[in-house]
């Protein structure tokens, strides 16, 4: 449950999204409470290999947000026709290997910043493939991706 | 603390180093006089004659307290502080960033001071030092970008904070952030500014100022732990509840295939400086003990089955639980005497050579088909494992035996012996436990040894020690008539001395053998 710190900050983010809107290709799908938010992400332009696809990004906030990073995963969602992107940093269970969701998280980052990073991660990809060892990871992965010890080794995509 | 104090410390401790070369005997002597041992006996541990002489395969070391570890760091910091003419706190951060490699740091700093400071997460010298915060006037109100709290321009100076990198946040967020890093992530020297991609390091002074006492204590413990972990010549005592650090400069990792650097901490317990093993795993090498224990853990099902504390009497099949250290078993039911290790009749052990530590490898060579071969190899493993586990178990039982011994010592005192005359009993138990531990690891070694003449000698040393230990163990368990008390004392003292001698012979042979490259293993070490 979000405490004072988290809820005040999330209210503020929400107000900002409502007044200023979100960047192109990013939409806030639901923010029913101060615990779980759902965004949709599309990669715009003709260059992308994800043209026409929609992805849903789920963010789960702990009481220590934004000191601690939220739990961020891609989800498959039929309501929004969203699938989990095929990307060398996205496992088929929706877990994402990205340094800003781990050791490079900074409390000044926010939900929209995470969405932008995910969008650009997808945009720079040229080849649809799953990460190496996807099946093995998915079989053994904890439900919370933050419990996985990530090793960030590829800055190109 | 003034820097003069620090300077004095340096000289004081340099003297300390000099004393080191007087060898282990000196410091061990102090220990035995002052240190209560684990079982609560506080006086008269082994007498001075019993003290181990320093052998060529022993390492010189020093046991350090946490305070001394802190002093060591301070000395390094003071040196850099004087040499580079920078504040001590800056020097400390630079040293930590360069993993306490003072030469590398100096080289880097003399080449490019600005870059060196930046790389370590410090503000370049041109910008104002964050320590001496000047009371500047803030002209605009401030909203903390993390918690979104608003601060009036009057509040900004007191309630918000920046580390000179331009990222300003409120003190509550700073405290929350730093506390989390220390408490949840065990971070210390690498806590950075909260700003995105900002590498500025949070200084210890700021940590102390912001987080509650308990956490700031943990922070400094973590800094110390990192210092010890980064230094190849330091190692924490691995025993629970002990906060000492062993300092030893003689054991680079490449030496570990010819040295078993067993050291004794001031807490009275042994550890291996090479691998951090919480005990004395001599005579076997670090790498082999690790392999062996892994093998035993992997084969745990078999091991579990084997480790079961009961065996059947070989004659009447009654189930017997071993509750003492001696391997000479007498069945309560049928009075059959047999050996707990090989289960053969005891009569064959008493007079002839004690053969049950050897394993007849011929069966392995002669095995025709692969099934027989694999069975032989399993049998071979089980052979060594049983003996290993047996001595392990016996050593543990002997530790329980301390209490019994204590009672018997009291009983003897009622029979006319003074307390001091009964101490031999306890010394005998000490000797037996140490010898059993040596024997235990000698079986791990034997498992990996290639069969050759040296191995024959090793096994014969093992046999002799094993026999000596069983004799002493048996003698300790018999309750003598009061009139032969003095004779028993004589016997036990003699047997103890013999066990010690056999133990030394085995260890000498193996440990000098490493230097000479005499041992050939079936695995690479």
CATH class of the largest domain in chain B: Mainly Alpha
Number of domains of chain A: 1
Element order, helices and strands of chain A?
Answer: HEEEEHH
Please identify the top-level CATH class of chain A.
Alpha Beta
Question: How is this structure best summarized?
Answer:
The complex is a heterodimer of chains A (157) and B (525). Chain A has 157 residues and is α+β, with helices and mostly antiparallel strands.
List keywords for this structure.
heterodimer, A: 157 residues, alpha+beta, Ubiquitin Conjugating Enzyme, four-stranded antiparallel sheet, 3 helices, B: 525 residues, mainly alpha, Herpes Virus-1, Four Helix Bundle (Hemerythrin (Met), subunit A), 3 domains, three-stranded antiparallel sheet, two-stranded antiparallel ribbon, 18 helices, 13 strands, 7% strand, elongated, disordered N terminus
Question: How does the SSE layout of this entry go?
Answer:
The complex is a heterodimer of chains A (157) and B (525).
Chain A (H helix, E strand, L loop, with lengths): L3 H17 L5 E5 L5 E6 L13 E6 L10 E5 L35 H13 L10 H7 L17
Antiparallel strand pairs in A: 1-2, 2-3, 3-4
Chain B lengths: L2 H18 L3 H11 L27 E3 L1 H19 L3 H10 L4 H10 L1 H7 L22 E2 L6 E2 L4 H4 E3 L5 E3 H15 L18 H7 L2 H18 L3 E3 L8 E3 L14 E3 L5 E3 L13 H13 L1 H8 L2 E3 L6 E3 L6 E3 L6 E3 L7 H4 L11 H5 L3 H45 L4 H30 L4 H25 L7 H31 L10
Antiparallel strand pairs in B: 1-7, 2-3, 4-5, 6-7, 8-9, 10-11, 12-13
